[in-house]
Amino acid sequence: MKQPTFNGRVLLPVDVIEAARAGDSLALEQILRYYDRYVNKICTRTLYDKNGLPYIGVDEYMKHRLQAKLTEAIVNKK
């Protein structure tokens, strides 16, 4: 059976989402890995090094907060 895709990317199976909602930590990790590229994209900011020079990078604080919110939304979904 062919897996469903959206814009050329294979979608997460529903059973993985249901397992994560039931408390399966491996399924939750799989969901976080699935969305990792998207989260990195929206957390990309202009940051400054210790000398005050700007560079483009991922705001790790923002990334961890978004991952926590995603985890909370999955686990607390009724």
Automatic annotation (TrEMBL):
Protein name in the entry: Helix-turn-helix domain-containing protein
Organism of origin: Flavonifractor hominis
Xref: Pfam families: HTH_16
Residues of the Helix-turn-helix conjugative transposon-like domain: 15-74
InterPro entries: HTH_dom_conjug_TS-like
